[in-house]
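Chapter summary example.
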Amino acid sequence: MQSNTSNQTTRVLVPTGALGISFAAPAFARGVESKPDVICVDGGSTDSGPYYLGTGTSKYSRAVTKAEWRELMIARDKAQVPLVIGTCGTCGADASVDWMLSITREIAEELGQTVKVAALYSSQPIERVQGALKAGRVTPLVPAPEVSEESLAECTNIVALAGAEQIGAALDTGADIVLAGRATDTAIVSALSLRRGDHAGAAWHGAKIAECGALCSTDPTSGVILLDIDREGFTVEPMADDANCTPHSVSAHMLYENSDPFILYEPGGHLDVTEAKYVSLDARRVRVTGSQWVPSDRYTVKLEGARIGGYQTTIMAVLRDERYVANAREWTEKLHRFVCREIESRMRLAAEDYDLEFRLIGVDSVLGALETKPSNPAEVGVLGVITASSAEIASEIGKLINPYVLHYPLTRDEELPTFAFPYSPAQSERGALYEFCLNHVMTLDDPMEAFRLEVVEVGHG
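The structure predicted for these 461 residues follows.
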């Protein structure tokens, strides 16, 4: 890849924070007309929990993903620049890369395009991670669960987060489109700029600011951001008419999904923005200089893994009687004690064989005991969540507690109440419950040794 000259700028167009959540068409068109060098978009994250990594599936609609990807492929063809997506299909597992490849193939055929696609795979064979653990090359982050060769064998999917080196290798193939598995959000945005010799601190910092599109602007929902990176710093500008970037909106984004507002760790080093300066060039654009990239003495990639942690059944009732609404917490505590005794005596299950909790929707279902805002709702939803070692046990517990969730009285000397089940059957079988089981880094001798790169041509003819 050709090095950047002193007056050359790498222009990155980011249409949205994630493929599948939409972007403003006029703003995107304006970005394409600005002649970007690359179009980059994120495809997922761990935000929505471990299910998607555990199953290797996307949380986004295939139809919506295809519609948005179609617009990006049309724009890529018009601009004649690479199109890069990271963390395909929410989780970035190999199956998700292949899912995105199938969508790309369909669109290329429909549009009559012929495109060169570089597929970067991030899934890790269990044996590779077990070997690295045994060799002392797997290190826990904070917090991290204990891992062993046995616990690793329970994982349904393990991925490593690609950095700029792996994305850069995919771009080096001359691909029109890069479909990357699990990757850091910043890697896809910074890779071309780093390959061209821009300021490393500016490339990484600009990538962090632009990773979620217009979230760094005064109109986060507008989606589209244009990022210019050069040999000294970067400039960021939203593409929507009514959006502006300010020093506050830009600098604040360093705190997004990051515990330290000044340091951001990436494969191969970390970004330090302690000395960064944020200056408004006009009402819309912000210029940033002074960011520094600090290389590490070893190259590590973060590992994410998910496994089945049990099976779940849920049951729901709605309380509307004023007395029960006012005493919902007391009622569920009494109900919980009673049904647990019934489960243990009638199903011969010990307390450690299952988990049952009741969440009060409208009272404190999100924060539980940490809730500080008292409320006086007209009705309360009682959601029972049952977790057990098998789907059959979870379902049986749901059936056992059903009549008590419907009729259990607050006191012994009153008539049996009747509450409302919002649907029939009252319980829902959720199936496997997945849990994250890795928050570690793995040391590599070569950035590509844990990744697989395949190049194919898809499309018309």
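To summarize the output: The longest helix spans residues 328-346.
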